[in-house]
Amino acid sequence: MNNEAGKILVVEDEDDLREIISGLLQSVGPQVVVAQNGRDALRELENGNFCAVVSDINMPVMSGLELLEAARKQGRDVPFVFVTAYGERNNLLEALRLGAMDFIEKPFDNERLVEVVKKAVEVGTAQLSLEKELDRLSEGTSASSEQIARMRNMRRAALLMKIENEIYCKKKD
Amino acid sequence: MAIIPIPPDETERMRAVERTGVLDSPREPAFDQIAELAVATCGTNIAAISIIDRDRQWFKAIKGLAVSETPRDISFCQYTIVQSEPFVVEDALLDSRFRENPLVLDGPRIRFYAGVRLISQNGHALGALCVIHPSPMRLGEQQMNTLRLLARQAELLLDIRAQEREFRSLASRLSSVVESMHGAILAKDQKGHVIFANSAFCRLFKASASPELITGAEFSDFSPAIASLFANPEYFLRSTCAILEAKKVVNGETFTMADGRTLERDYVPTFVGNDFQGHMWVYRDVTARKNAERTIERQRAQMAVAARLSALGEMAAGIAHEINNPLAIIRSSSQLLSSCLEKRAPGFDQEVRLSAKINDTTTRIAKIVSNLRSLGKADDKEPLVCCEVKSILHDTLELCAARFRENRVSLEVGAIPEGVSISCRPVMMVQVLLNLLNNAFDAVKDLAEKWVDVEVHHHGSEIEIYVTDSGEGIPQAIRDRIMEPFFTTKDVGSGTGLGLSLARTILERHGGTLSLMPEYRHTRFVVRLPVALAQPESGTTARAG
User: Fold this and answer.
1) Has residue B464 got a pLDDT over 70?
2) Could you tell me which residues come within 8 angstroms of residue A40 by beta carbon, excluding any fewer than 6 positions away?
3) How many whole angstroms separate alpha carbon A109 and alpha carbon B508?
4) Would an 8 Å CB–CB cutoff place B343 in contact with chain A?
5) A60 shares contact with chain B (CB less than 8 Å)
6) Residues of A in contact with B321 (CB under 8 A)
7) Which residues of B507-544 are buried (b: 16+ CB within 10 A; e: fewer)?
8) Residue A35 class from Cβ within 10 Å (0-12 exposed, 13-18 middle, 19+ buried)?
9) Do the beta carbons of residue B332 and residue B395 sit within 8 Å?
10) Which of B322, B335, B427 is best to mutate for the A interface (most A CBs within 10 A)?
11) CB B114 within 8 A of CB B77
12) CB A85 to CB B370 under 8 A?
């Protein structure tokens, strides 16, 4: 799984905080990429394989929620973890509705941040390898593109369930 | 029979007659004497003071004849009242107007009549003073003049009677007004004797006699000692003496009575010219008004606090983001610093400790910001649920019992009424009670006698939760401030100064109150909340069982 591990994207407008978060996450993933706002982050997502996005919500140019929405529209399932100073339920509920995986309130404990992002990276990495496996499978068949798409979705769902099960069971131990 | 003369001002004239109130009044020597003088002067058999009523003449005084009235239409005096000069009939038998008059033909057999009309103060003829004789005669000029003078005397007497009557009616109207007045009134003359006191005054000062009996006496003879009436008798006496000395009008001076009522009094001295004639005291019970004023004042203060809190809450929400971001940097950095230092340990104990302090401080700041936000935030979106008081208390006690136990602070909880529920957001209620209990704990933990007591009372539509600790109460100077945001008596760093204000805000949002009971010998807070109308099922069964 590790050979093709994806990168972690840290999106935060506050320079010092961006530096701290990316520093903390060095231990989690092989490569941490940073962006100052949602728009820059979206550009990064288009260019590379990411296994997790750690993003602020309230940012100039494009907010974290807008970034999440745009990413999902482009079909990117990468797990999002929000780091927010707001802690307002409305924002967080909206984030979860849009498919965010988890959130952390500022100021946070470093350990907790690492822990939450680790979980997201596991899911994201599994997703990435699943995508690759599906790509490889679809190359050698004569099935129609529609059939392939359906198969992709079914396998993806099954695998996701399996991954999540593993992660949550591991947490409980 | 001749045409009866009706005065042109008959209506007003009758009013003037009625105003005298003399009709059908008992006989009076003063009037009788005038009639006697008239008889003596004129040498006639009969003299009368006749008042002309609507259809009779009535004799206020009559000498020489035993009748009290005759019909108006046969009277001689009806002619007298319509002319300003005396009316004289020297021989009635020679006068066509009287020739066939029954009084001439029969009864007194009048032959001679002389009358002078009696005029009221406002110029209407009331009747006449007349002399009558059974044989024709003529009066000399001297006699006519005396008759006129006697008539003036009769007029004066009638006028005095009218004035007396008016004065009496005014006085009685006045006294009924005074009597029915809400205020307690005492009027005294210059010697200090009571001119009048109304029953409100007698009641107020617990007099042992009715207003009538007190009149003319010294009020103090009937009243219990001042010391037993007033909360501060020395002040009352001092002020009263000063007022009596100054003899100047005083309005709205207030006193507290021994029974807790608030009185307001006015002082009005009476002068005729420069001569002091006496004075009047008016006392009013203004307890209800004062209480209402206090309530309004309290509500206004509460509203001011609420407005301030809401402004604070809005601002807090706005700055939460601005504060939490830099705070996140400080916190994360201090944690990073700690782990760096720990890796290089030993030898950095001091630095590790300082870094931990930075970390703890960020926790505190974050808590302040979060509390501030909940102070003003419209958290009413969270639904109200009907929850039993007992379960809220149990949840609260569960959270703090260990802390009390570990520090050997005794925590006594009285009987909690069964089946009483309140409509609330239970987590917030727990937060409120926990705050009170923690405050109590902090207040007593270092005292020799350390206990905290929780009592719950249920009165009708209200539930009261008392939290009392063994502390000596809150000093007067800071009582009003303890529920203000940021006010704290705790050491710097151990409290946010928001606990009580937050608790109060939460309770007020639930229709309840939080108050300190300053008169209690220990520190005692009371939470009052309205009991929910719809009791949960469990409550009903518990009562039925």
Assistant:
1) yes
2) A11, A61
3) 35
4) no
5) no
6) 58, 85-86
7) bebbebebebeeeeebbbbbbbbebbeebbeebeeeee
8) buried
9) no
10) B335
11) no
12) no
User: What is the maximal distance between C-alpha atoms in chain A?
Assistant: 54
Hey, is the C-beta of A93 within 8 angstroms of any chain B C-beta?
no
Given a contact cutoff of 8 angstroms between Cβ atoms, the answer to whether B313 and B222 are in contact is no
Q: What is the mean pLDDT of residues B19-45?
A: 94
Q: Supply φ then ψ for residue A60, to 5 degrees.
A: -70, 165
| Dihedral angle computed from the Cα positions of residues B367, B369, B371 and B377, in that order, rounded to the nearest 10 degrees | -150
Burial B27-45 (b: 16+ CB within 10 A, else e): eeeebbebbbbbbebbebb
Distance CA B506, CA B500 (A): 10
Among B212, B178, B171, B173, which residue's Cα sits nearest to residue B194? B212
How many Cβ atoms are within 10 Å of B192's Cβ, its own excluded? 12
Q: How many residues does chain A have?
A: 173
Q: Which of A82-96, B63-77, B505-519 has the highest mean pLDDT?
A: B63-77
- Indicate yes or no: CB of A24 within 8 angstroms of CB of B333: no
Handedness of CA A153, A158, A162, A168 (dihedral sign): positive
First to last CA, chain A: 23
Question: Using an 8 Å Cβ cutoff, are B62 and B35 in contact?
Answer: yes
DSSP state letter for A61: S
**Alpha helices (H) in B110-183, listed in sequence order:** 141-180
Locus of tokens 């009696």: B118
Radius of gyration over alpha carbons of chain A, in Å?
A: 16
User: A68: burial class by Cβ within 10 Å (0-12, 13-18, 19+)?
Assistant: buried
Give the C-alpha distances (Å, rounded to integers) separating B484 from B294, B368, B375, B517: 20, 14, 11, 17
Interface test with B, best of A110, A111, A116 (most B CBs within 10 A): A110
- The partner residue sitting opposite B325, judged by closest CB among A23, A85, A87, is A85
Distance (Å) of CA A130 to CA A32, A124, A159: 22, 10, 8
- From chain A, the residues in CB contact with B336 under 8 A are 20, 23-24, 110
Q: What pTM does this model have?
A: 0.44
Query: Using one digit for the tens of pLDDT, what is the confidence trace for B260-290?
Result: 888 888 998 888 888 888 888 888 888 888 8
Whole-angstrom distance, CA of residue B151 vs CA of residue B51:
12
Among the partner residues B324, B336, B339, nearest to A85 by beta-carbon distance: B324
Helix residue spans in B383-498 (DSSP H): 389-406, 426-444, 476-479
Instruction: Give dist(CA B536, CA B528) in Å, integer.
Output: 20
Among B321, B328, B336, whose Cβ lies nearest the Cβ of A107? B328
Contacts 24+ apart (CB under 8 A), B491-496: B493/B364, B494/B442, B495/B442, B496/B364, B496/B367, B496/B368, B496/B371
Q: Is B21 left (phi over 0), alpha (psi -120 to 50) or beta?
A: left
Q: Angle formed by the axes of helices A64-73 and A38-47, to 10°? A: 30
A125: closest CA of chain B, how far (Å): 26
Answer yes or no: is the ipTM higher than 0.85.
no
In Å, what is the CA distance from B324 to each residue of A14, B108, B360, B363? 12, 122, 14, 11
